[in-house]
Each structure stands twice: as structure tokens, then as C-alpha cells.
Please model this.
Amino acid sequence: MRPLLWAACSQLLPRGAGLCASKPAVTTLVTASHHSLRPLALLAASSSPASVSAGFLQPLVPGSRAPSCWSSQFNVPPSALLVARPVGVCSMMRLPVQASAEGLDVAFVGVPLDTGTSNRPGARFGPRQIRAESAMVRRYNGSTGAAPFDSLRVADIGDVNVNLYNLPDSCRLIRESYQEIVASGCVPLTLGGDHSITYPILQALVAKHGPVGLVHVDAHTDTGDTALGQKIYHGSPFRRCVEEGLLDCGRVVQIGIRGSSYDPDPHKYCREQGFRVVPAEECWMKSLEPLMREALEIIRGCKGLNIVGCDLVEVAPMYDVSGNTALLGANLLFEMLCVLPGVKTL
Model:
């Protein structure tokens, strides 16, 4: 798993600061990922005011009187006490689906691309499976008290129409799509897709917010240069980001790095850029404070930051027929939603 955190400067937003606050001094992005489960979280702060339009879902069962917004002015996932979980369109948490991010504070968006994968393809089906499993995710965070659907206008805006036969062209399509999302003042929460998609997403976000910090939880640093002569693949996004000045390198931390390598000093490039690399061994049998080394704690520890976007990548459903990997991905995306600026705590 690879949680990533991007921040534009070292300041933090106070807890409870909303998306409608004045333009913040910090931009933060969170991403998570792993080769079988790569949750990438792009957490982007928006300066647009929260929408207060009604936006009630229509009942999912003909003749049903079940309210889907629970007397809320925002979109709310329907309760399984009133609407059966298998019923309805397969959207993230069965939220409304709309064609663009206009009027939203937060948008779930899929990027079904795995053309940049070096082995075991299949992450193109990740967004669809995450959406299916997300029917199990409920309205409130019982551990933190976060109530995102009482705080922000959230919907699913579908998938980027990628080009499966041309990775550079897919990067262009992703970048242009996210430029529109960011321009609307909306925070994108991304369902991947392989890790190459983070590169064009960051291009779009940084164009608005400037260089960002990063928290990245993964097996690998993804700072490779080329593979088979190609510079864009799922092992190279953060080297490309460094080259283009997208990252504030002094505020990049990569946690849980592990596994074999082709080089006797595989983290040399990262250290030279100023990244902090935390090998998996440093996370074993130790207190999680203050680094927040586990996935939930890392995400929850980002509460109070000016988060500019989140993404979760490389869920490949065919390698886990139980669906548990996608269910975990759905829950981590919900946790990312819960730490966005403006989310109330009950």
C-alpha cells in the first residue's frame, strides 16, 4: 500500500478549517498504493464554498419511500436498513453519479488504466471493483466521529476515458480531466489504476497549488528512471515529478519501503533529493508515534492539513477473488474523505 501526502508548504490548517476558508498557505496531497493494493490519495484543498443545494437521491426501489439523504442538505449514502445493498447503480458508496465536478466539494473519480504495469496487470478493473465493495461502507466514522456527508457535497463523477493503447496519451487525458476538476474547486479522490496515473494527476494539481509535500506508503519508492527504454511506467512517477519540480522534496516521506532491488543502495536517489525514506523494518514492533506508520494512522494523522487530493491505486481484483482487497481500498478512501478540510466531527 502506498499512502502519499503532498503539501505545498510546512504550515498546517487548524483542525476544523473548512473548504470555504480563505486561501490556505498549505497544499497537501495524500496517496496510497501497493502492487496488489496501491491506495493513492490525492488530497486537495479547495477554496470554493461548500455547496448547499439539496441533491436528494431518488429512491432506489420503485415505490420505496426510503430517503437517501437522511434529512441532510448533502448527498448521503443510502442506509442498508432501508435499501438493499445490491440495489442501485454501482457508484462509490452508492452516491449520486454526475457528469462533472461542478458544484461538488469532493469527487470520487476512477482512472481504469494499467498500461504502465510491469507485471500482473489488471488494475484497470480496480475502480469498478472498489465501487462494488464500497456498498459496505457507511455514513459515519465510528472511530474518529467524522461526518463527511454532513459536511461536504460528495458525488461520483465516473471514470477518465483513458487510451489503453497509448500511455503518454492517457497521461494527457488524465491531466486534462483533472485540470477541469481542480478548476471547479473540487477535491479529487482517485480510484486507480496503476501507479503511473499519479504523475499526470500531480501535474494538474500542482498547476493550481504549486509544489506539494508527499506521504507515500509503499513497497517501492517508484523513483526509477527508465524501463525497457520508457520513462513513464508505474515505477517512475516520482522521478518524473522531481524532474518537473512538482514535489517539495524536503517534505516527502516514503514509509514501509521493502523488498529486493537491482541496486545495492536502492534509496540513494531519494536521499539525494531530500526525501525521508522509512524502511519497513523501522516500522516493526515500535510505537507508531509520531510517524503514524500504519495506513489508518497515517491517513487519520493528516487531519488538520490542507489536503489537496487523494488517490488509491493498483487494486487488481483477479488476484483476490474474495474482494477483500477492494473492500479495504474502499474503506481507505472513506478514511481519506474523513480527514479532508471542512469535515465535521460529531
